[in-house]
Amino acid sequence: MAVLPPDPVFSLRCPEMGAVNSLCFHDNERLLAGTIKGSVFLWDLQTNRSALHFEVGSDPITSLHHTPDRLVTQEKGGAVTMFSISNSSYVKERSVPGNHLGYCRTALHTNSNNTNEQLLFYPCEESTIGVLHVTDPAAPTQMLVPDDPQLPKLGSVTCFKPFECASQLFLLAGYESGHFLTWDLSSGVMVDVVELAPDPMTVDYDSLTNRGIVGGASDKLTTFSYQRQSMQLQRGTELCIKNAGVNCVRIRSDQKVFASGGWDGRIRIFSWKSMRPLAVLTQHKQGGVMDLVYSSQSVAMWRAPIMAAAGMDAQISLWDLYN
Predict the structure, then answer these.
(1) Which residue of 45, 72, 137, 304 has the fewest CB atoms within a 10 Å radius of its CB?
(2) How far is CA 320 from CA 30, 71, 260, 303, in A?
(3) Do residues 158 and 104 lie in contact, with contact meaning Cβ atoms separated by under 8 Å?
(4) Within 10 Å of residue 59's Cβ, how many Cβ atoms?
(5) Mean pLDDT score across all residues of the chain
(6) Per-position b or e across 79-105, b if 16+ CB within 10 A of its CB
(7) Contacts for 164-167 with beta carbons within 8 Å, 24 or more apart?
């Protein structure tokens, strides 16, 4: 007898919100959603109501990040805007104009030894990646430009993941060509390039287990690891999924599971240890799942850590899975 997929603990909806492109938690009890209309909705998870919403611009919000005292948004086209918190609302602090016509999302990294040091990685024109100091407006912006003449034609950057290894900061970046470049951020030097997966759209990597996962336009998820001394990327196995197209992959911080959000509206849950499929969630039936996020700790109402998912069907589903 087939096992039915579990139900969400709750679904958040409101008529004004519409389709959702991006999500992020703030202090576990608040969830922010960036919409295709260019607005941000703040949801209070103690009441499951929208406590606030405001317009950033007219373009879709492709990614959101929240530090203890700032909200960072990215719009389609690449513009990055930072907001500070003031009197229970958000006040625009500064903007960085963008010139990226693709779908690459920004990535925020907080230094494990100094939580006040926060770097934002954002896509720029062609194959360039910008590195912005979130907490220090006076700090110069670093540019990672893959200008080695021996490199193949990369195309635009499509996804990246910053991570720490042996107290050093690295950035793994995927490009339209299917090549992945690894940058040593302390020196700004590219240390590895390998052709890993065609048409990549999303990547995640866990440095504790030394394993990562890539998803894209194909019907396969590709795993990889690093040869730690040389920091050379090594291709692993492929996981086949029923329908092609993956918008996001997210490894949970306890290394128990990872999830993928598909063009088909399915959320697929896998064991991170065995890579075996555990569940296919079918709550989102109209359009793709655009983003997945995990709370870092338990959400009070559900007394458990929560996974949130959202997409083109204008709802945010909340899940208590495999905790």
Answers:
(1) 137
(2) 16, 26, 16, 9
(3) yes
(4) 17
(5) 94
(6) bbbbbeeeeeebeeeeebebebebbbb
(7) 164/112, 164/207, 165/207, 165/226, 165/228, 165/231, 166/228, 167/113
